[in-house]
From TrEMBL:
GO terms for biological process: glucose metabolic process; pentose-phosphate shunt, oxidative branch. Its EC number is 1.1.1.49. It comes from Pseudonocardia asaccharolytica DSM 44247 = NBRC 16224. This is Glucose-6-phosphate 1-dehydrogenase. Catalyzes the oxidation of glucose 6-phosphate to 6-phosphogluconolactone.
Amino acid sequence: MAADRVDALVIFGATGDLAKLETFPALVGLVERGVLDVPVIGVANSGWGVDRFREYAAASLRHNDIDPGSAPAQKLLGLLRYVDGDLDDDATYAAMSTAMGDGPRALFYLEVPPFLFGRIAQGISAAERAAEARVMVEKPFGSDRDSARALDDTMHRFFPEDAIYRVDHWLGLDPLNDVIVARFANSIFEPLLNRDHVASIQITMAEAFDVADRGRFYDRTGAIRDVVQNHMLQVLASVIADPPDRSGPDSWLDAKSRVISALRPLTADDVVRGQYEGYRDVAGVDPLSTVETYVAVRLAVDSWRWAGVPILIRAGKTMPVTATEVSIRFRPVPFDVFGVGPIRIANVLRFRIWPDAEIGLTLAGKKPGAGREPQLQELVFAQHTGSDMRPYDRLIGAALNGQRLLFARQDTVEAAWRVVDPVLGDAVPVHRYPRGSWGPKEADSLLPDGDSWHDPAG
């Protein structure tokens, strides 16, 4: 499909929480930069009219500290249209088509649960709007490999793969794109990112908060499905995938698919699950729940480049801080030429992904004074706070222009499910851990001998 603009943006579920928290603020940014200047049609079954819909959008902007009276906001509000109707009724899609006008190409954004994807796709097709469509769909894209394949089969009845834009909002984070730029814009890093030089890789996604009012959702999901299968494996692929060639965006998507496909499926011995104390008291949570709010996994890559390098990922709630970092620990020098002791210093390349952007490189230099005892110091490249755009601003803008680089492809999604499928459910016991801790101590058993977890700073 050609990378060109659409004639309309149609949002299903446009009166929901995602639209309120993310979509409308992102659309203002797109209008401000001249990326969005086509009708934006909300479709929902809320009993609203266009005036109420515009009021909802304006309230969303105020909630996100955006003045609805500003010029970009006023232009966005003027672009808004609204179709109210039952998503099971073909008349709703006929009304949608009328609101779209004569332009043949639209971006359909499905901000709805996956069980509605098939019916909406059928409705778009019945309205004869599928031929040149692009379709953005939100995660979760399946709950395991089989359900992901079934969902793919349903979508592919109406849309080709290159028309489907699977959203993983982490792919829209500016700091994650910093990782890619740092890797491929600096000639010093890429020759070192392989089994000959890297001792281990760790990714920590720590959240200081709990599940709050999402107990019912979270108790059906858990940390593996919620963040490891998607966000964390996408982060890992951005760190270790082979460089793309110059043939186009598919080259990078191919590279990420290959490296995720090369990950061995997890076994019970590779996983430690945890649940914070008090989780079972949350509204909507089963009083006997064994769902994990913390998980640590040890991964292995069956590739020439990464064979034998231990990769550890941990993610959890009620941690000491909210931060996500990648830590690449390099092999130490072969022996101590200075005779200062048995400890050999290792260099570390650190990428901070959230909440801010930072790249750190730990080097050894001489400690001031007599002798040659080395000391460690981290060189830090920090992005200015507030200089990046919203993830959904970047993602919706890319989809409007037919740019698939920031989206998850079918083969990559299914490969990621293949990795985690064996340890879903109660295949691994769950350990309690105190709020404010780094999770259950049992996770230390996954570490290589002599290694420790990298704890990101708050």
